[in-house]
Amino acid sequence: MCSILKCLAVVDDLIKVKEEDTEHNGSKGESVAYYTFHGLKQVAEKLASLAKIAWPIIITSLLMYSKSFVSMLFLGHLGDIALSGGSLSISFANITGYSVLKGLAMGMEPICYQAYGAKRWAIMTKTYRKTLILLLAAVFPISLLWLNMEPILLWLGQDENIAAVAKIYIKYSIPDLIAQAHFHPLRTFLRTQNINRPLTISVIGAMLLHCPINYFLVVYLNLGVRGVALASAWNTLNVNFGLLVYLIMSKTSLRPWDGGIASIFSEGWHPLLALAGPSVLSVCLEWWCYEILLLLCSLLSNPQVNVAAMGILIQTTSLLYVFPSSLSSALSIQVGHELGADQPKQAQQTSIVGFTLAALWGILAFLFTTAVRDVWGRLFTCDPMTLGLTSSTLPLLGFCELGNSPQTAACGVLVGSARPKMGCNINFVSFYLIGLPVAALSAFKFNMGFVGLWFGMAAAQVSCTCMMVCTLICTDWKQQATRAKELTQENEDSKNDLEAPLLS
């Protein structure tokens, strides 16, 4: 309700114009109608601007989501142990590797977005190179951890055969980790310039090759689990290759290798590290929460059914998450550009329009999960107990989306305004001080079982959304524009207009 009232206030601001239109002075009714039309037109322009950025991201995200789906199909073809070991390895890789790289890469987003808005092109290229170095440096300790994963899994009580397969899979996933370290900053660098089509085309091309590559490695060369892992790495390398080809051939975009590199190691690391630290914590805290829920499922009675149902629901929420996540990225870009261009009012309006749009998506997600609760589980399993548990919990998952969608959009606003620490604090409080305790008490103390775990997640999402709303309402947007100037202020006397003709 607060977000709706706030949005109405913004619409009221939008319909005010600086000069009176003499053609509409004759009639008050005509004047109000004109201003209302003018304001709604500007809101529509905001929506169109966000949609222009978000839709390519949605398509790309769905295609990348299908990558893991194909991998799971080929793992299932290899047998139950391969499927279990591969799934366990993917989960371990997400927790300890991919989430870390994604979080670290998010540190460059507000700097690049605001630098682009301020037309400080040199800052963008320097930030890209520093982020690439940071991610490649992070690959080394993560790889060491992955190579020693088997003893950790055995210590946690995992089956020896499954742990052995998981070790093989994650060992051959290290090339994908390196490729991801290059992909994340390159994707952000292009999105900063509103260049999304090459990424979409590259992902489409990589996905068209993904099934044949899997078949070649897994079946033809008989590499088994190793082939599935290598095919995933090959897919990421293909995407990287497509983006590099575009950059080499493009005559309009900035190139990350433009400019000197001699001073990269000696200057300007503090802003990036100050943003990367909270960003990686924020991402990891949210990712880890779902893994902890999965672990708690194994402690309930009939753990096989509970874990299977939780897997279906997590896959479902991951699919529903594509839209708010893409909208969040669009908001980060747009808000960052507007703050960098010293347009705080525009940034505020974009935030509220985007937040309201995300809230509407949450309602649609709730209606969808409620409507398909009796048939959705059949896409994944035929087990009656798992189907019953999934059916009874899907409406609660939809209720979680009422909070998850707008809070995800709000996180995008915080990223665009260079406030990842605020998002990290909110995630920690809502998920770990509220959500998980409520989940544990509901499931075990009050004997609500599996459904109780999702009551905890609902409590986390509601509290997170409330805190995000309060944060956005209390935001001083003029101050954020001032912070953007400080963040993008260069520490050297070099000119920033060397690449300006490329973007003019």
UniProtKB/TrEMBL annotation:
The chain crosses the membrane at residues 53-75, 81-101, 132-149, 199-221, 228-249, 269-293, 352-372, 426-444, 450-475. One of its GO terms (biological process) is xenobiotic detoxification by transmembrane export across the plasma membrane. It comes from the Eukaryota. It is a multi-pass membrane protein. InterPro entries: MATE_euk (IPR045069), MATE_fam (IPR002528). Keywords: Membrane, Transmembrane, Transmembrane helix. CDD domains: MATE_eukaryotic. Its main location: membrane. GO terms for cellular component: membrane. It is found in: Membrane. The keyword Transmembrane applies. GO terms for molecular function: antiporter activity; xenobiotic transmembrane transporter activity. Belongs to the multi antimicrobial extrusion (MATE) (TC 2.A.66.1) family. This is Protein DETOXIFICATION. It comes from Sesamum radiatum.
